[in-house]
Amino acid sequence: MESYVRCTRCDRYICPACMREAAVGHQCVECVKEGARSVRQARTAFGGRISTVPVVTYVLIALNVLAYLGELVRPAIVDRFEMLGAGLAGPDGGHYLWQAQHPADFSPEGVVDGEWYRMLTGAFLHLPPTEGTFGILHIVMNMVSLWNLGRVVESQLGRVRYLALYLLSALGGSVLVLLIAPDQPTLGASGAIFGLGAAYYVMARRLGADMNAVNRFMAGLLLWLLISAGLTSWQGHLGGLLAGGVVTLAYAYAPRDSRRALVQGAVCAGLLVLLVVLAVGKASALRNGAG
């Protein structure tokens, strides 16, 4: 097809079927693609890419629900993947408190036996319907909290930063459990959710939000932390809260220039290294009978 229309950007002839309307005149397909690549991506106040759909929150909720359904089908999943620092599996199939010096027919289990995956898998498991203080309310309350908090935090941080925050908060909770109560089996997303709560508070202060409602929210969160000391794993809650606070402080107060992503990533990496060192040191001490 003969054409007499030129691209306003590269001045080449373009066919009428391929040309794209621009602010002034028309552009060819190649220039439109080049222009799209050169357009600067919109960012949130914390450096994340703006997204309107909280995909990561949806995926995290789905993983928790799928894991719960797996527990209902195979209850042994809980014993195999919950967070446990150190324990003993007896010849009768029972679970016993850790002792570095144990009979030959008892075998170690937990992080002390190299089951490091428990430090994250435990954050995706919840109490079976008929067990514990809360039963099925355990996962219901956690998923409602994740839905309410996660959507807000993810929209401000972007998907990558949000996922790093969630996983580091979950890991922080597990590490504090390992340090303080290594023989206490724990499970649930609460540690990660407490990390999201800390993130919500730090972000609100950084953005200059009305702190009255935010302070009431944090007061309720801290009150639950105290109440949970007698009902659930307060160590996991506190560890998640502290880890989430550290990560979000880095997100919120990193320099707002080309160094921002580097500083944020370095703090996350540094926290991960610290948590790993603490976990490895505690596991080694437990194995040597000094834990």
Automatic annotation (TrEMBL):
The chain crosses the membrane at residues 50-70, 132-150, 162-181, 187-204, 213-231, 237-254, 261-281. It is an enzyme of class 3 (hydrolase). InterPro entries: Peptidase_S54_rhomboid_dom, Rhomboid-like_sf, Rhomboid_protease_S54. It comes from the Bacteria. GO terms for molecular function: peptidase activity. One of its GO terms (biological process) is proteolysis. Pfam families: Rhomboid. Its EC number is 3.4.21.-. Its main location: membrane. It is found in: Membrane. Keywords: Hydrolase, Membrane, Protease, Transmembrane, Transmembrane helix. It is a multi-pass membrane protein. Residues 114-250 form the Peptidase S54 rhomboid domain. Belongs to the peptidase S54 family. This is Rhomboid family intramembrane serine protease. It comes from Streptomyces kaempferi.
